[in-house]
């Protein structure tokens, strides 16, 4: 053994080599030997332990097997003696003790399934004259047996309960025996013959501690929903209600309620799992009031962390068991019910219940879906959500049935009616609802319309009719909607509530002081409830406006909000919309408003923008606001704004052109259709990010009316000029023609369509037009731009003639697309597309056309939705009929109306359904608002949808859609056809140039003197005679290109004045007599002698 001494010994190495050993090497060697010895000892001990464990397990297995055999024999003997009645009470109790005690020793789930079932069956066997079950007999003894028996049962209950939940293959008769035992032992009735009732309390706590409710949940969930007749499932569910009720009632144990909510009420299709009789018993025993109040008091903390697949069934089950009780609930319980529903709705991700609607592709022309077509949200259609979206998985139709109770009209009326205090009898809205109640209702309804977007129109329409405070605690739309349309309505109460908030006061103060709003208003958590109120008021008032005519809007007795309040509200939403669009870069659109979990910045921006646009549209059609009301109340450097927005547009367009060019090469193999599709996809993606890329363009595209119309026109012209510079072959003194067309004057439209339509966006360039006379000879003249203007004017005159069939006139002689079926054929749609390009060319070149379009047509072309208030311009009689229906106080069903409309097609009447099975869906008082909306929507939007899409597709080839979105339909009409204002002689004289005349010539003096005396109608005829359009340019005559010119036509005073409308040229003979000039000029303009006579 090494002792630490390093004194070398003399060694003799017979090999002849001397071995060198150092101290460190010897130490390492010794350590390694020690480690190996220790490892060997550890292996030896481990082997002994393993052997001991194995011998112990083997012995235990043998013992358990012996116990099983003995237990089987003893149990059989006990069962036989109980049936025969040959045992005494003590013997039965001893036998029960022995059976349970021995079973707990040997029980192993894998091998003792049958024995567990047998034990449960044994313990509930009745015996004796009183038929007392075996498990209850030990409690009749006055010795220590009851205490020891309780301990055994408290040990057995968890094992039996756990096995009930974990075993996967239950036979019904076996499961029923186990559940019957658990049900019997938990029932206080089982202890009526016992010496004392204390065991029931102890065992009840044992059931809660054993987690039997989760085990019952596992057992029931493993059973197919269709097996409604399984007694074991029925008993298990009823057992869960007993345990929950007894634990909470006796001990105030909230844990039992939480277990019941999170494990039983989250079972999918719980009402569908049992028979009607069992469902009735379950509903009766269900401690719903206690559950609701507990959840409300804890802010639903126990369910906040539940996964989505649990929250939705929980919501469905609470609705299933609660919707019929609402009318009978106390005020405290009904408030709790509202809070719980609100909480659960807030926990369900958007699109989890209803998938977002997919746009329908046009079967006849797939290209229609490739446009950059911006469509406003339809009432009742899937909307942008206040919360983040989530992938949708289709829900079971039976689950949807229960969930649909959330937006059921009667259910909503009961909820709202239950909130009204019983003592409320006044007409003052402030006395109807408390601030807390208003906040709860607001959040509930916002969540509801978010998760059920397809039912939004029904929900909001029902709210339109609901009135508070007139019949005590309850107030039902079904009983009151036949009277005055608006009593103390929800919109009035909630608007007043919003106007009483601190947020409203800050907004009003900022507006009155012309100071910009702060982003902090959006981020401040203290304003969360106020933002919710504003969002809900905006949603509801938007829906009210959808079916409100202009006459009703201006009538304070029919408009729930007075016009003065509407004006104030419009100012508020205008400034908020501007704040949210202008600060897009500073705000996350997916973030919460003011800390609210349910309201997103993007959703608030969308809904206040929608309300702002609707209110502005009303004012544009029939003014009710002061002049310049819609302009920003805060200062804005317009010159800097214009320069910045023009630069933003140039940058976006350059990026877009670069992306298009890079991807066109990759797409050419797929053809031009794929190229176009890729370009439009890029445009849509860029448009969706427009506000973030350029807040100024976001403002111009969504709330453009906050900027003066003249400034927007200037911006539009700058956009066009910028586009000219980027487009090859458009700029220059006389650029090369990109297209040549020989046009016969009798077929201008057909020839133009055949020869120019294929050019598409190339129409931006110069088009060389040559007119062919009736003899087939080209007319003399060089097209410097004027001949094209003449061509365009002639084409518009022919194409928009109602006899041509593409367009029709309203009663006010305004043009709109022919809605008949033949106008939707492919050939006709290509004609509409060509006309869109022609009007795009006119806008691009600044050429005014002599055509007036219906507002609903231009609105549709701008991607907006037309509503009932647009209907009078198309069909006044239909509008009157719908308004009659809306305000009809009798039984609506007596009118025998169905959800259908009739179309006349070539002398044949075609009936079209507005909803699935509409021909069998009767219009009632409850659904009449939807019928009114759908009828107006069909006439104003659906019938002309494809025509408008084709027209817009052609228009967008030349005019970028985001340029058009800077204007509404009335402003677009001005852009196309000139201003509706009178002719300003001062402006006209200032912008006239003379050829072979000077301003002091007598003829010129006579001319202006005659024009001064003309009526407004004659002045318009004069302007039309010279320029082909009777309206002045929207920014004055300085916009004419070329300038309006008066040229000396010679000394022949017998000649009539003539004009070249293509050049804005008046050829005026040098008259020496004022009266002769007047006579000749008036004759010429009234006979419309123009280009042909020059």
TrEMBL record:
SMART domains reported in the protein's UniProt record: HECTc (SM00119)
Keyword list, A-Z: Ligase, Transferase, Ubl conjugation pathway
Gene Ontology BP annotations: protein polyubiquitination; ubiquitin-dependent protein catabolic process
Acidic residues: compositionally biased ranges: 656-665
Transmembrane residue ranges: none
GO molecular function, one term: ubiquitin protein ligase activity
Catalytic activity: S-ubiquitinyl-[E2 ubiquitin-conjugating enzyme]-L-cysteine + [acceptor protein]-L-lysine = [E2 ubiquitin-conjugating enzyme]-L-cysteine + N(6)-ubiquitinyl-[acceptor protein]-L-lysine
Entry annotation: catalytic residues: 1062
InterPro entries referenced in this protein's UniProt entry, alphabetically: E3A/B/C-like, HECT_dom, Hect_E3_ubiquitin_ligase
PANTHER family in alphabetical order: UBIQUITIN-PROTEIN LIGASE E3C
Protein name: HECT-type E3 ubiquitin transferase
